[in-house]
Specification:
alpha+beta, 6 helices, about 40% helix
Length: about 130
């Protein structure tokens, strides 16, 4: 059953598991519609108050990044949301704040350089693990 799921199906299953989180599903649908690559969803609710989820994906070029961003924005506005957007004109790294869901759309080189997944993908079950280096 779940073993045959593609990574995209698994991401949608995760979004469906929390039926109240329509915004995350909306973002994933928009990213999938324009074939965003290497999509990763992080649950950051326990790490910050600025959002519950973070979606990170890669576009193949500046034009692709911009189109994915425009699609996320269009879906959000259609759903009655007021997205806050940064970086759309430069299209190297587009950040869209959907009020609870942050969507990062990056070109491959930018994503490899900043590696923002590593900043947020920490093990919060053991808070002493991060303080051990001090």
């Amino acid at each position: 059953m779940a073993a045959n799921n593609t990574p995209t199906e698994a991401l949608h299953a995760a979004a469906t598991a929390a039926p109240t989180d329509n915004t995350l599903r909306l973002a994933l649908d928009a990213v999938e519609e324009l074939k965003g690559e290497s999509v990763k969803v992080l649950d950051i609710a326990a790490l910050t108050t600025m959002a519950e989820h973070m979606v990170i994906c890669t576009g193949r070029s500046g034009r692709h990044v911009k189109r994915i961003g425009e699609t996320v924005i269009a879906h959000a506005k259609k759903a009655g949301l007021a997205p806050r957007v940064e970086g759309l004109e430069q299209s190297e790294w587009v950040l869209i704040d959907l009020n609870g869901v942050l969507v990062h759309i990056m070109q491959p080189v930018t994503r490899a350089y900043y590696q923002i997944e590593k900043l947020w993908d920490v093990d919060i079950a053991d808070p002493d693990a991060t303080s051990a280096t001090h």
